[in-house]
Amino acid sequence: MEKSLVIRNLHVNVAEEDKEILRGLDLELERGKVHAIMGPNGSGKSTLSYALAGHPGYEVTEGEVLFEGENILELGPDERAQRGIFLAFQYPMAIPGVSVQNFLRTAINSIRRARGEQDIRVPEFRRVLNEKMDLLRVDRGFASRYLNEGFSGGEKKRAEILQLAMLDPKLAILDETDSGLDIDALRVVSNGVNALRSPERTFLIITHYQRILNYVKPDYVHVLVDGRIVTSGGPELALELESKGYDWVRQEFAVPEAV
Amino acid sequence: MAITEEQLKQAEERYEYGFHDPETYVFKSRKGLTPEIVEEISYMKGEPDWMRQFRLRSLKYFEKRPMPTWGADLSDIDFDNIYYYVKPSEKAGRTWDEVPDTIKQTFDRLGIPEAERKFLAGVGAQYESEVIYHNLQKELEAQGVVFLDTDTGLKEYPELFKEYFGKIVPPNDNKFAALNSAVWSGGSFIYVPEGVHVQLPLQAYFRINAQNMGQFERTLIIADKGSYVHYVEGCTAPTYTTDSLHSAVVEIIVKEGARVRYTTIQNWSKNVYNLVTKRAAAYKDATMEWVDGNLGSKVTMKYPSVYLMEPGAKGEILSVAFAGHGQHQDAGGKVVHVAPHTTSTITSKSISKNDGRASYRGLLKVHPEAEHSKSNVRCDALLLHEESRTDTYPYIEIENDRVDVGHEATVSKVGEEQLFYLMSRGISEAEAYSMIVTGFIEPIAKELPMEYAVELNRLIQLEMEGSVG
Known about the structure:
- The complex is a heterodimer.
- Chain A is an alpha/beta fold.
- Chain A has helices spanning 45-53, 77-83, 100-114, 122-135, 153-167, 183-196, 235-244, 246-252; strands spanning 3-14, 19-30, 34-38, 58-67, 70-71, 85-88, 171-175, 202-207, 220-225, 228-233.
- Chain A is built from 8 helices and 10 strands.
- In chain A, the strands form 2 sheets. A 6-stranded mixed sheet of chain A has the order 6-7-8-3-9-10, with helices on both faces. A 4-stranded antiparallel sheet of chain A has the order 2-1-4-5.
- The relative contact order of chain A is 0.18.
- The mean pLDDT of chain A is 92.
- Chain B is α/β, with parallel strands linked by helices.
- Chain B has one domain (24-419).
- Chain B contains 13 helices and 23 strands.
- Chain B has helices at 5-13, 35-44, 49-64, 101-110, 112-119, 138-143, 150-156, 158-164, 175-183, 416-423, 429-440, 442-445, 450-464, and strands at residues 27-28, 86-87, 122-127, 130-136, 146-149, 188-192, 202-207, 218-223, 228-236, 244-246, 249-254, 259-267, 272-282, 287-294, 299-302, 305-308, 314-323, 328-337, 343-352, 357-366, 373-383, 389-398, 403-413.
- The longest helix of chain B is centred in the first third of the chain and has 16 residues, at 49-64.
- The radius of gyration of chain B is 22 Å and the shape is globular.
- Mean pLDDT of chain B is 83; it is low at 11-17, 89-94, 112-124, 126-134 and 206-213.
- The interface between A and B is medium-sized, with 29 and 25 residues.
């Protein structure tokens, strides 16, 4: 199989607390597939997504991360994005005074310039933006609002998916995108993700609950406990986990309690 | 991603408008300030005797007044080491063809002809102390709108000058108003007749070009009943190694039912002391709006003010200040409610980068007679770095209980999480900073004519190039 992302023996500290959160994580993502990572609170789910996106507050002490064959650990977050990694945030930041469309155009052009391409022309940008907003059933007035400012929880998540659609990444990491969504919003977000699935795009859906996986069918499910992937399987693993709970995983796979 | 001092220096040296033309002046006064120099300036200009005496009287006020110690540090200003008058060419040019080539090149580099082609109604561009190029569209002339350099205005409209000049900002108002009153030269004089709406902004560019030369322009705007005018000044200046002084006075009279908007984008080079007195009087149902952006200079002290003289008068002040390395922007606004049923708003946004310091200093004063007045003051500060500094001095003096006054102030820091969020979309750190900053000032930028909004954003991007680290 073709690998999109390969993680080997990844150890990550949260810099501020000097505490090791990921403790030798191994994971391989197959290109064009949807991988789900499930794990209880405190297992290191958000740490993994931040570490992959290059957050300066997360320090990699050991291991390697290869994206499309390239070691990305020395790259800044902007350079990783330019290579095609996208993180949909659990808590997206508000940027007052910057409209969704200005922000998107700046981001697209930053990525294009890094790849030695021309800036996107404004009419083309408008056309693509309208197309994606329609696809995701986002009101067109959304484009002129200030990014995430005064957005409801559902609107923020939709804005994240719209960014995903516009930036067209090779790897999309969704960090608990389902948290705090009501069933309608969850459906809209899930439909969006499904519409964006392609053989060229790999998804890593990080979640606490099995719920989103009813809407976005994963190809693979991995279970993260105490900073390591303890087991992997097909979609059925998610259901088993849902019914038996994370304690079952700890016992079954003899994971020691976190220190 | 850290940036070295050397890179920072290079970024500052790339300062776009920091070019420097050879000096070719017709007349340059000696350095320093004496009654003889003031007499000489007045004589060179062929002024009436009352103006000569006004200047000499002002010089005495200037000498008597101590240096202000309540704002920025002004102790490095050496008044004896400044040229108070430089006249670049014999007479004000009437058409573009008559403008000397070197000066034209300077304007070309500032993009003035292009700006004019696009939408300007009239251009009065000040180069050194004298307005050398002036053009007013024919339809404005037909409407009776006067747009002249102030020296010519004094010659052609002596009665208006006797009535209004030095009345809104009296020469003994403050030390720098006194200095300007003694040595003023150039600036704009605008008269808009009753009921006339000037549709397009009137615009003037200012530059300082001679080393150690103070620039003391003086602007007088009279908007007659029910008229409207928007005046725009953009200031860019070359960079020099010794300190320069810019001390202007702007006086505006907004008569019954009239509206005046005065927009400034100040981008003096980083060695200029920019000490400006701007004041307007708004009468019955009149509206005065100041839009004031301060990016350049070493020190700026500027508090555009509005006196609300009669019922129904409105004042609005929008102020943006950007203080980078070594800069102190002491800016804000001042509103005095003299009459009942008057309203005002002050909105201030300041940004401090590196060890830059931006202060908001404002005065809101409500007289005992000014009942049922409303005012709202809001100041927001954005700090980019640990060593950045902001201060707020909101003075409020209310002598009437029946008023509605609101005041709000916020200070925010550019957070690691905001930067990471933007960078995770492929945006570089410098561009992420500049995006946050332009977003922060967006409420004010959107009030600017588009060309100015674009220039403001471009200047901020330029400033942000050296901000990463």
